[in-house]
Structures are given as structure tokens and as C-alpha cells.
Amino acid sequence: MKIIGIVGWKNSGKTYFASKIIKKLKIKNYRVASIKHAHHEFDIDYKNTDSFIHRESGSSQVIVSSSKRWVKITELNNSEELSLQDLINQLSETDIVIVEGFKNEDHPKIEIIKNASNNYLFKKISNIKAIISDEKISTNLKQFKKNDIDNIVNYILEHM
């Protein structure tokens, strides 16, 4: 299983590039999973849905299942967040995992750069293998233009 990270500062386009890469990998018949880190509280169920009512009533785990998909919601109650490896261990039958965020973990990463500056993540964190930017950045890392999704995916498959 390959694990590829997509990192960048807020609003740099991480989700956009993760989705484009996932689509291209899927077209190439890879089994793709994704893990997205959230820095804030989030809900996947909403007020007045059955799963929300179950959770709000005190259920620490809720599973919603249909013939199309299933999801498991686990309340952590402010306990320690799961590690990336713990989350990866929850996956099955996957060739490639696209990880958005988790920038301080040790998997290979691609940095999305929205605007050239001196505040690059590749100068601060380990294991960034390539960058995506429409501006030329002074680095020895592999660089891609933002519209070069095919070559980015080929690089992931061949070099990461």
C-alpha cells in the first residue's frame, strides 16, 4: 500500500488536488482510499437525522449502513486523537492512500504552494518529495505546474 500525503497551508488547494489525483488513480484502476485531517470539530451527521439523535443520546459509536455505503462514527470524548497509522489500519483492500494533512507524519508528501513566499513547508517538515506551484520555486525538489495532474500521478506511481 502506497501512502501519499498532500500538504500545504490553509486554502492552498489541498482538497482540490487530492480529488484530482484520486480521480486519475481511479481511472487507472487503482483502489484508492483517502484520509483527511481536520483541525476542528466536525460532524458528518446533522441535527434531526437518526444518527445524530443516537449520538446525542449518548451512543459512543454509531454505524449507519445501506446497500451503497456504511459509516462508523466514534465519539472520542476529548481523548487522544488516533494516529495516522491507526487510521490506515482501519482501511481494507487499498492500493494507494491519499492523506490530506498530517504534515508532521513520516510518509512521503507533495506540497501545494498557492503563492510564492519564503514560508514553505518543505523547509520545515520532513519527507516532502515534490511541490505543485505555477511559480518557479528555488529548491531541488521535483516541481509540477498546477494543471499537470497526469504527470503528478505518474510521479506518484513511479517515484513515491
List the helices and strands and how they pair.
Blueprint: E1 2-7, H1 14-27, E2 32-36, H2 50-56, E3 61-65, E4 70-74, H3 84-88, E5 96-100, E6 109-112, E7 128-132, E8 142-144, H4 149-159
Helix pairs in contact: 1-4
Distance between the termini: 11 Å
Top-tier CATH class: Alpha Beta
Give the rounded overall mean pLDDT: 91
Residue fraction in strands: 15-25%
Number of helices: 4
The total of beta strands comes to 8
* CATH architecture identity: 3-Layer(aba) Sandwich
CATH topology: Rossmann fold
Query: What is the helix/strand order?
Result: EHEHEEHEEEEH
Total domain count: 1
Query: How helical, in percent, are the residues?
Result: 10-25%
The CATH H-level superfamily is P-loop containing nucleotide triphosphate hydrolases
Give unreliable regions as ranges. Answer: none
Q: What does the radius of gyration come to?
A: 18 Å
User: What would you call the shape?
Assistant: globular
Q: Major β-sheet, in short?
A: 6 strands, parallel
Structural class: alpha/beta
Strand order of the largest sheet: 2-5-1-6-7-8
Structure, explained:
- This protein is an alpha/beta fold and 160 residues long.
- It has a single domain, classed as P-loop containing nucleotide triphosphate hydrolases (Rossmann fold, 3-Layer(aba) Sandwich), CATH 3.40.50.
- The protein contains four helices and eight strands, in the order βαβαββαββββα.
- The strands form two sheets. It has a six-stranded parallel sheet.
- A hairpin with a 4-residue loop joins strand 3 and strand 4.
- Helix 1 (14-27) packs across helix 4.
- The radius of gyration is 18 Å and the shape is globular.
